[in-house]
């Protein structure tokens, strides 16, 4: 009997898909759960983010919720501040489902306002304070927001914004509003006096006056909104084109908090986190604040940050947890520390961008040398699922991997543009099903339909737009953004992979690889490179790096050109900005 090879291939393919579907009930990554005692599923509080925070405050009223330039605030005091702030919002007319824009760096006023608005059932519309006036106007208009909380240094840009749209009330804060008197005076001498506010319009009120006027309100109109209703709007990167408003619920944030606590055994009430990542970003608001606060931990609030400050901040505040993007850890490696100066550090988290195996090893060696036994852990996430829903197992980093899904989160790899499952070790689009997945894009039904899809299993899956693969143990490997893929003579080139190879050269600090037009190949790869500060560019170094790349890459993915720079552009949240390299 003759059997056609094509039919055998189809049969194998169907079997592979069947095996792949089984992990919804018995996921391959569950073996790590057994080893690390991670629960497969969690019980999530059917509460708003304010109510979840309030539970922690009731458990740990005397513990510190945050520290800001040395001034500390207990959980009991924090809840009191949130309630006073809610009364003040109520006083100026904010009601349930109103959208209030928070255009703030990390300050107590910003995070207090997020929870105060949630208490009222209003929606916090989070915007980067360094956005242009056009971008601020776009976000206000997109969200139909008529109230704005921002910093005094943003005031000048608001003059332009108000020429085109009406804002009912603008609340202006100063960086010194929550500082102690000595630090506040020092700030005024060095920076504060340089910020000039022109004659204020009638719709502008300073933070301290805003809080004072709220005293006339006797009771807060606490909302009855459910945990699955809109609570917060964050925005996609938007480095080119139009940013998308990402609608997130209290359930999304509570899920991220509980999932990340469950896979991090070092979480302990009373510990502290260096909260550097910004509140207008899912990594910052979801991990560095909401997760930390609901665990009864202290947020060390850092409003203005540069990579060179990283080591100094760690030495000053001695946090138990640190979290950041890879560029921050490059900076840490250049910090001079005594042998056991990192003994206090128990957890090191990295997200927002790919961590190269070389940098991972260097960071681990560095912290171990200085008394810390923790190893850096990679988290993968995107704003559409708040923050990290995938994390490397404790002390089990596999080079090139982003880890395994957290409890109640499922990942599968599909053929791009379809919901067709691919077998293990096959590149495809990463899809995620999780209670952290967004409600959808603000006023963009078609974009939402393209991103959130119901598959044959009946689950809603987030099509992430990221290319990756999964091995038979359920470990996921990120390759590249789909839209960033370079197609050269029919071959797929993943810029992240090429960058990782180049960055592994001991004299390279960082690189960005982009596609450039080619007359017959369509596109070819070009590399932009920054050397480490101790090296000066020579012909010998150029040749070294070129040979290193060619020795470690398939020929079709070799960069056709290498251009050396002093610096490379980064996005507002510190990621390498490949869209703006020229």
Describe this structure in words.
The protein is α/β, with parallel strands linked by helices and 582 residues long. Among the domains are: 202 residues, Rossmann fold (3-Layer(aba) Sandwich), CATH 3.40.50; 96 residues, GMP Synthetase, Chain A, domain 3, CATH 3.30.300. Helix content is 31%, strand content 24%. The strands form 4 sheets. Strands 1, 2, 10, 11, 12, 13, 14, 15, 16, 17, 18, 20, 21 and 22 form a 14-stranded mixed beta sheet that branches. An 8-stranded mixed beta sheet has the order 7-6-5-3-4-8-9-19, with helices on both faces. It has a 3-stranded mixed beta sheet with strand order 25-26-27, covered by helices on one side.
Would you spell out the secondary-structure blueprint of this structure?
Blueprint: H1 5-21, H2 30-36, H3 49-59, E1 64-68, E2 71-74, H4 75-91, E3 99-103, H5 108-120, E4 123-126, H6 133-142, E5 147-151, H7 155-161, E6 169-173, H8 181-190, E7 204-206, H9 207-213, E8 230-235, E9 245-249, H10 250-262, E10 272-275, H11 282-294, E11 298-301, H12 310-317, E12 321-324, H13 326-332, E13 347-350, H14 357-369, E14 376-381, E15 388-391, E16 401-405, E17 410-414, E18 428-433, E19 440-441, H15 445-451, E20 452-454, E21 460-470, E22 476-481, E23 486-488, E24 491-493, H16 495-503, E25 508-518, E26 522-531, H17 539-552, E27 561-564
Parallel strand pairs: 1-11, 3-4, 3-5, 4-8, 5-6, 6-7, 10-11, 10-12, 12-13, 13-14, 26-27
Antiparallel strand pairs: 1-2, 8-9, 9-19, 14-15, 15-16, 16-22, 17-18, 18-21, 20-21, 21-22, 23-24, 25-26
Helix pairs in contact: 3-4, 3-5, 4-5, 4-9, 6-7, 10-11
